[in-house]
Every structure is written in C-alpha cells, then in structure tokens.
Amino acid sequence: MSTVAWITARGLFGRRRVLLLLPLPLLLVGLAVLCRSYDVNPADWGAPVLVGLGLAVVLPVISLIVGTGVLGSEVDDGTIVHILTKPLPRRDIILAKLGIAIGVSAVTAAVPLFVAGALADSARLGLGLAVAAVVGACAYSAFFLLLSLLTRRPVLLGLVYILVWEGLLGRFVSGTRVLSIEQYVITIADKIAPTAILEAKVSLTVSVVMAVIFVLGCTLAAVDRLRSFSMAGETS
Amino acid sequence: MTTVELENVSRWYGNVVAVNDISMTLEPGVTGLLGPNGAGKTTVLHMMAGFLSPSRGTVTVDGAPTWRNPEIYRRLGLVAEREAVHGFLTAREFVQASARMQKLPDAKAATERALQLVEMTDAADRRIETYSKGMRQRTRVAAALVHDPQVLLLDEPFNGMDPRQRMHMMSLLHDLGDRGHTILFSSHILEEVEQVSGTVQVIVAGRLAASGDYRRIRRLMTNRPHVFAVQSSDDRRLAVALIGEKSVSGVEIDNAGLTVRASDYGSFTRALPRIAIGEGIRLRKLLPSDESLESVFSYLLEA
C-alpha cells in the first residue's frame, strides 16, 4: 500500500464520518431479512428494497460519503498540502485515493446488496447486484472524487446528482438516463441475473461504455485539476 | 547553491491586485518576508511554493518553474500558515510518511533526525491531535525538513509558540541559513524578524516596498521617535521624572494617561521600570502605540 493510500485509509477510518457508512447497509439487510422472515412475496418487496433503497440510495450515498471523504475533507482542513508538497506525480495521488474510495464503497455496498439479492431471489441475483455495485462504486467514486476538487460543496452537489438527476429526472426524462450511473448498475445486474425485479432501461453497451467513460474521464480530469491545485492565502 | 527568483510577478483575483510587479532573488541564508496583514506575503509564498500560478511573470527555483512542477519539492519544503496536520497520526508517523513520500533511502533515520532537530522526540508517539499549537507547528517543520531541502518556506512560523520554542526555532533557522540553505519566513512582527534575519523583503499593499539588510532599513527610522501609551498610579509625577530621562524626547499628558516619545526604544524600556520604582509609582499600562509594521511602513513611505 502506498503512503498516500495508507494516510487516506487512516483518515477515512479515523473520522466519525465512517460511522455514517453503517446505517444504510444495515437497513437494507434488515428489511430483506424482515420480508423474508415474514414470507412476503419477493415480487412485492424486491424492487422497492433492492432498487429503490439498495441501488438508488445505499450505493450512491455510500460512494458519496467515501468519495468526497478521501480528498474533500483533506482539501477542507488543509492536510492535502502535506501530500502535495512531495515530488509525487499527481496521477499517483489520485489513483491511490480513488483505489481506497472504490475499495471501501464497493465492499460496503456490494456485501449487503449480495445478501439482500440472495434473500429476494437467488445467489445469482445477489452476485449480479454485487458485481454491478462494484462497477457503480468505480463510476460514482471517480465522479465524487472529481467533484471534491471542483467545488467546495461536493456533498451538496453529489446529493443533487443522486436525488434530482438520477432520482427525479431519471424517472421522467428518458434522455437523462444515459448519464445516470444508477441505470448502468441496474442494467449490468439485470444482464447477469435476469429477473422481474430489475428493469433495465439502457442497453448493456451504453452502460459499460458510459461507466468506463465516467471512470476514465473523471479520473483524468481529477489528475489535471490536482496539478493546478491552488491555495488561497487567508491573509492575502 | 539554490536560488528562488521572482521576475515581474503579479497576481490578481478578479479586479483585486494581490501582488503587483514584484521581482526578488532569494539567496542562501535567512530572509524575512515582512508586511502588514493583507499585504500579499502569503500570496507570494504560495506562488514560490507552487500553490498559485502567477497572473504575470515567472517564479522559479534554480530556473525551474514552481507552478505545476511537483519535482521542485525534492529541493523545497513548505510550512504553510494554516493548520495542516493529520491529527489521527503520531508525530513520528506523520514525519515518516513525509520521508516515505520523498522516497528517502532511510526514512526512519531521516525521521529521527528531523524530530531531534525540532525537539519533538519525547512526544513523538502521541497523536498530533493531543498536541499544543506550538508542538503541531514543530511537527510540521520536522515534516518539511525531513528531506533536508535546499529551500525552506515558512508562513508565520512562530505563531502559537511559547518564548522558549520561539528561541529554539529561531536558532534552528539560523543554523540552516548558515549551512547554506535558502530560508524565507513571513511575519508581520518586526522584532521577530530582527532576531532571526538580517535580510528582509518588505511588502506593502502587494508591492515590494523595501529590500535588503534589515538594520539598514531600521536605521532609516531612528529619526522617528517610538511612541508609548503609559498609565500609572501618578501620571503627572511620572511625566516629570521621565522628561529628565535622556532617551525621552517628549511627554504629553491627558485624561487617558501619558503619551511618551522615546528616541531610543531599548534605553527607554529599560529606564521606565527603574524610574517608576525609584519614584514609588505603580505602572498600570505600557503600550507601544506605533510599533506595528503599518506605522513603521508609513514612516518609511513618508521618508
């Protein structure tokens, strides 16, 4: 593990913010266990719990907390200067931070989605959701990491993307789905484990290509942005 | 020998000009960057450290531009003014992380050497969040020094340090300067700079107002008396006693107390307590009322 990744991981798990990662996965698994134990028909609870909560809320919100936490909090408190005053290629810094963000988001979202999917239908659905969640974690993390370099309010803008773009516009304006990571995740999970619970609205090709574009585009933009990182003087 | 060079550098934010056409060369040794708050010192330091692009002109370290050039950090260390330490790490971990990111061959040895330099060895295994401001500051200096950089830039390095730590930091900067390092530190406290550095770069309102040996600039101001506000248990009797003192060039008395003009700062401040004790007068307030850099600069600019 690189020193940057080590500091990032220590920073992430050393802050209280990490506790925010626990409630949503627990809620997802808890609801799935509850429905299963009361023998509720999976056709009734599968879509609202797995898609409505799991893919529309748990995955993006966890990625948002982690993705903006790995760099945004260091930019906020000024500790980023400690890392930037080293002769490290900015690409290495971004990749180390992105790696931690993807790893933590993917594990935190994919495991409960696997469990909930397996309880709703089959281990295959669980696996499909978990794989799609990993892809989604990559795209979301790269996007939110870039946001934390573009704006001083990355969490707010991230929430606007999740709630307004994906949650509201994605439901009513079909054209916005091409730029919706949630739709790529649903499509990928649906292709791995076709069930009535998931309803793909974009093609697999669009999903894969756009997910790659999100990851590469946002990563390259973040590297370039970090190269030009400016520090405003408080007394200037 | 490493030099930092600013050539016709300006920096503006929208319509506000923060730094206006500054040219300076920093040679090995300790240089103080002086100026009142808001003069543009931090902007200049950040441009030198590669954290701001100049709107016009060039900033280079040994000919290499500092902007978008991480390689300069092999030769340059920065201690920024803002608190910037990972509180969840210990000082040893923090400094060693710096050594590793610098890819030093023996990171542990370099860490111990840097911690010793700033006298932080004893507390090095405590988390930084438990430190006082002065200890944090020394930890940051250790991290900036771990790779023994040729150039060290420090923004208000004495903030939060107690007098003993301040003295130690001053002698550390002296030593580094004597060993051929190029050290630049910013401060708005004139006496602080006087003790550390002979050479100063003075910035007022974004412009380079004076440059060179501090003592020479200081000498230019000896025709200006130092003004003190004094309050005591018997202002009138104290005024009579003070006017007999050689270093005092004038005394005014009003309802707020005394306004004393002293031609020699050191002689007056030594004489005042002696006179007060001799007269049995209790001093309630002694405030240098024109010691701020702003006043000094207004003298300079008027001269």
Please report the total strand number of chain B as a whole number: 14
Strand count, sense and closure of the main sheet of chain B? Answer: 6 strands, mixed
The low-confidence runs of chain A, each spanning 5 or more residues with pLDDT under 50, are none
**Could you estimate the helical fraction of the residues of chain B in percent?**
25-40%
Overall description:
Chain A is mainly alpha-helical. Chain A is built from ten helices and no strands. The mean pLDDT of chain A is 93. Chain B is of the alpha/beta class. Chain B folds into two domains: 4-219, P-loop containing nucleotide triphosphate hydrolases (Rossmann fold, 3-Layer(aba) Sandwich); 226-302, 2-Layer Sandwich (Alpha-Beta Plaits). In chain B, the strands form three sheets. Chain B has a six-stranded mixed beta sheet with strand order 6-7-8-3-9-10, sandwiched between helices. A four-stranded antiparallel beta sheet of chain B has the order 2-1-4-5, covered by helices on one side. Chain B is globular, with a radius of gyration of 22 Å. At the A-B interface, helix 1 and helix 5 of A face helix 1, strand 6 and helix 2 of B.
What keyword list fits this structure?
heterodimer, A: 236 residues, mainly alpha, 10 helices, 76% helix, B: 303 residues, Rossmann fold, Alpha-Beta Plaits, 2 domains, 6-stranded mixed β-sheet, 4-stranded antiparallel β-sheet, 14 strands, 35% helix, 29% strand
Describe this structure in a few short sentences:
Chain A is mostly helical and 236 residues long.
